[in-house]
Write a structure and sequence with these properties.
- The protein is an alpha/beta fold.
- It has a single domain, classed as 3-Layer(aba) Sandwich (Rossmann fold), CATH 3.40.50.
- Helices cover 29% and strands 17% of the residues.
- It is built from ten helices and nine strands.
- It is globular and about 60 Å long.
- It starts with 5 loop residues before the first strand and ends in a 6-residue tail after the last helix.
């Protein structure tokens, strides 16, 4: 039976179209909100305020550029080899950096919890969607999938336990980690050598992540591109490069492309346990995205928890939360992830 801790009033999924503003329906159509400032000193610490050291590795090349990841090891660990938490940054699929996981704020706080428990923490860079370069969200998924394969390939050298790799992502990173958690080894192949290694993970921590499923809901009921409202088409074509579509594509082609980037399309009964956090006042990624994910996970009896956080926007540093509440949510995420550690 699924484990589901629900702290929200269930929304009617049939009302989602009314709740999705065109300019903020999806992370790949908008930028990330700025952090609030109502935080205590515990969230003002970064890795630079500690003695933790970052090791940087090139895990592949993409479009002629080195793609890197950072590894931070714990000071002490009771494990023979380190279980791993992989952090994937946000940035609307077109921005951001692996340093986000180590800067002051909620993400570093949670990452440090895992370090103190004996986990190694990995933060990943990936190819960003860029209209001039012709890169799309697919490249984001391919690279991060290859990062997991690289960790499996080099687990002995790195001293990590490849059977215990968990994922943590925020915003666009949340959309990416759900995709990584639900796709198969043969999906999103990039580097041919790395494709020989598996990409299995143990758990997913999804913080207000989004992909194309919200936008798909807005296209329901239309048969041709001519039927779609003009203001919706303007937004679609403006940011369409992120999913590789243009004005030359038919509505059916657009929908098929969106389904390729919709993590719900890949879910089956054997997929990865997931915990999700989402604010009710998030105008960047609508909370319906997480509700749809939760309902699909429930239907497939996949263990999951979802937290509907009243008053929170698109950041855990929202002024709607107290530090004690932030600490509590971090503990929920930590307990969920560490609960899936297994000894061989």
């Amino acid at each position: 039976m699924p484990c589901c801790k629900i702290i929200f009033e269930r929304c009617d999924i049939n009302e989602k179209i009314l709740l999705l503003p065109i300019l903020g329906i999806l992370i790949f159509l908008s930028g990330c909100s700025t952090f609030g400032t109502n935080t205590g000193s515990i969230f003002n610490q970064s890795i630079g305020d500690t003695d933790y050291k970052i090791q940087t590795h090139v895990y592949k090349q993409s479009y002629g550029e080195d793609i890197e990841l950072d590894i931070v090891y714990p000071f002490d660990s009771s494990f023979d080899s380190y279980p791993v938490l992989v952090y994937v940054h946000g940035g609307a699929y077109k921005g951001g950096d692996k340093s986000f996981g180590f800067e002051k704020g909620f993400f570093w706080y949670l990452n440090q919890m895992f370090l103190e428990a004996g986990y190694a923490v990995v933060s990943v860079n990936y190819t960003l969607a860029n209209q001039d370069k012709g890169t799309t969200m697919e490249d984001c998924f391919i690279d991060t999938k290859d990062a997991i394969r690289w960790l499996h390939k080099n687990s002995s050298t790195l001293g990590i336990d490849a059977s215990n790799i968990g994922l943590f992502g925020s915003s666009a990173g949340g959309g990416i980690v759900t995709m990584l958690g639900y796709t198969e080894n043969e999906d999103f192949i990039g580097d041919q050598e790395l494709s020989l290694y598996n990409s299995n993970v143990s758990f997913v921590i999804n913080m207000y992540g989004g992909d194309t499923r919200d936008y798909l809901s807005l296209l329901e009921g239309y048969s041709t591109i001519d039927e779609v409202p003009n203001d919706l088409l303007v937004e679609l074509y403006k940011e369409g490069y992120k999913i590789g579509i243009t004005e030359d594509n038919s509505l059916q082609e657009i929908i098929e492309r969106m389904n390729d980037f919709n993590s719900l399309s890949y879910l089956d009964e054997s997929d990865t346990p997931t915990i999700t956090f989402h604010g009710t006042e998030d105008t960047t990624v609508n909370i319906q995205s997480s509700i749809m994910l939760h309902e699909k996970l429930e239907m497939l009896n996949i263990e999951n928890q979802i937290f509907r956080i009243e008053g929170m926007g698109h950041s855990f540093l929202s002024g709607a939360l107290t530090d004690s509440e932030r600490i509590e949510y971090a503990q929920f995420a930590f307990d969920f992830g560490t609960g899936y550690y297994t000894r061989e």
